[in-house]
Specification:
- The termini are far apart.
- By secondary structure, the chain is mainly alpha-helical.
- It has 21 helices and two strands.
- Helix content is 70%, strand content 2%.
- A hairpin with a 7-residue loop joins strand 1 and strand 2.
- The longest helix has 32 residues, at 172-203.
- It is globular.
- Helix 4 runs parallel beside helix 14 and helix 13 (321-343) packs antiparallel against helix 14.
Length: 519
């Protein structure tokens, strides 16, 4: 009897999965610090609430530091006992690069939020818990290797963001933005879940590698179901990237959200969407590249064209025009980011490294632009582009930083990293035989030059109230408010990173544009 029991145990695979705690440390630390902050908020007196922000900053810094031991990119966990190659969590090079982007961007957002939470009198405990929860979900998504984990990570990243957008209680714009963001996102998620159910019905698996194998040989009666599933699954991720026609929530959401959260959505939200698109298209759905390849190419052309055209129409004197221009600019930039993913359907899969390289550049300079906007908004809360007129005379370092960020976004020297990133994306389209898309991109880059350079030139013009400012200074009235040092650190950190990358753009290209997936 004992021998039979031993034989049965040997033939039956163990259902107990081992957990690689080091591999999941960045996600676990971020989530754990969020729980600590939420519980501490119950006991910390009101005067000590700012400490919660610094605990969050320290937690995000620690989570980012845990990526260093993982830099080899060869760890997996939560694997099927019957198929060790099918894992739900993979800390490969691709995942680590995106996790670095997400956690680094969340860290800069936290620095901007330290003063924003205090000045706007937002509930500190709730704010920091929601921010850390969203960052944990965003960090989980690039390492997810099954459709269920992808959707869970997407929603963990998104649901706290709804509340963060509406955190300014009593503000009509904030509540309206949160409601619009919530309703449109929930609809997109529901469509994606339906698509995943179709894919599961056609393949019998949720793991990306097994889905790819299943889609290679779909029975004829299930082919239409599989194609519909592939198309519907992409909707939720396309929404997160703000690709046209899933972009309509972006301007109002950015205007209604606190500025640090608007910057967070513009960078981390896009990273989540593009990461999901890359994983499902390149790993799970290569068999249906003839469907998603042309679709993403058309979406890229429409997104960059509409985004840049809308940014071009922003009036400098309109309230919130600066935030709206950054919002529409982010839509246009999303179009560029979609190009290499579409190109991956026609050429080698490592084309998507161009998207990652561009996303790293975009994250640094766009967060820097929002950091300067947060500084200017302390004295000019209408967020108008005209409020930046003469900023160089008032805050020369902030003006120079913003000018450099805008030139990077435009792809002009001295913003060399922006130029190199655009050339890399342009080359991916040409190499894939998408000449028409490369032409559309070139035209849109020229269009974008106008509104980026117009804003840049405004920074160095004589301020309208120069005489009034002189009179105030003579009377002993301070001409400007002192910049909070966390905001200054965020500006210096992003500006210094952008300068280093412009001096050696090969660093970001080598870091991100290599072969992220095996051929």
């Amino acid at each position: 009897m004992t021998a039979l029991t031993a034989l049965a145990a040997a033939e039956t695979p163990s259902l107990v999965q081992s957990v690689d705690w080091l591999a999941i440390a960045p996600v676990v630390i971020t989530a754990a610090v969020g729980l600590v902050v939420l519980i501490a908020d119950l006991f910390v007196p009101e005067r000590s609430k700012p400490a919660l922000g610094w605990i969050s900053v320290a937690g995000l810094a620690a989570a980012t530091a845990t990526l260093l031991p993982l830099r080899a990119g060869d760890r997996t966990t939560f694997c099927l006992t019957g198929d060790p190659a099918a894992c739900s969590y993979t800390a490969d090079h691709f995942a680590l690069v995106i996790q670095f982007l997400v956690l680094g961007g969340a860290l800069v957002t936290a620095l901007l939020s330290v003063t924003a939470v205090r000045d706007a009198r937002m509930p500190a405990g709730e704010y920091w818990f929601l921010l850390l929860s969203s960052a944990a979900g965003a960090a989980l998504l690039p390492a997810a290797r099954d459709l269920a984990t992808l959707i869970v990570a997407l929603e963990v990243a998104s649901l706290p963001a709804f509340a963060l957008v509406g955190m300014r209680r009593g503000d009509r714009l904030s509540s309206e933005a949160a409601l619009k963001f919530f309703l449109s996102s929930v609809t997109a998620t529901a469509v994606s879940l339906m698509g995943i159910s179709f894919v599961y019905a056609a393949t019998g698996s949720l793991h990306l590698t097994q889905v790819a194998d299943g889609l290679q040989d779909v029975p004829g009666q299930l082919d239409t179901l599989a194609m519909a599933g592939v198309a519907l699954t992409l909707v939720g991720f396309a929404f997160k990237t703000a690709a046209v026609p899933f972009h309509f929530w972006v301007p109002d959401t950015y205007v209604g959200a606190p500025l640090p959260i608007a910057g967070y959505l513009s960078v981390i939200g896009k990273a989540v969407g593009f990461t999901g698109l890359i994983l499902v298209t390149v790993i799970a759905f290569p068999a249906y590249s003839e469907i998603w390849g042309p679709a993403l190419a058309v979406l890229a052309a429409l997104t960059m064209t509409l985004g840049n055209a809308a940014a071009l129409r922003q009036s400098a004197d309109r309230p919130n025009s600066a935030v709206r221009l950054l919002a529409w600019s982010s839509v246009g930039q999303a179009g560029y980011l979609l190009v290499p993913i579409a190109a991956a359907a026609y050429a080698a899969r490592d084309q998507i490294g161009s998207t990652v390289a561009y996303a790293l550049m975009y994250a640094v300079v766009n967060l820097g632009a929002f950091a300067v906007a947060a500084l200017v908004a302390r004295t000019k809360p209408l967020h108008r582009i005209s409020d930046y007129r003469g900023l160089y005379a008032e805050r020369p370092l902030a003006a120079l930083s913003l000018a450099f960020f805008l030139l990077c976004l435009a792809g002009l020297p001295p913003g060399i990293v922006g130029l190199f990133a655009k050339v890399t994306v342009f080359r991916s389209a040409v190499d894939a035989g998408l000449g028409w898309l490369a032409v559309v991109m070139a035209v849109n880059v020229v269009i974008a030059l106008y509104y980026y350079l117009r804003w840049t030139a405004l920074l160095f013009r004589a301020p309208d109230g120069a005489a009034e400012g002189t009179a105030e200074a003579a009377a002993g009235t301070p001409a400007k408010a002192k910049a909070p040092w966390p905001v200054t650190v965020a500006i210096v950190l992003t500006a210094a990173t952008a300068l280093v990358l412009s001096g050696a753009p090969q660093l970001v290209l080598r870091f991100a544009a290599g072969s992220l997936f095996p051929q």
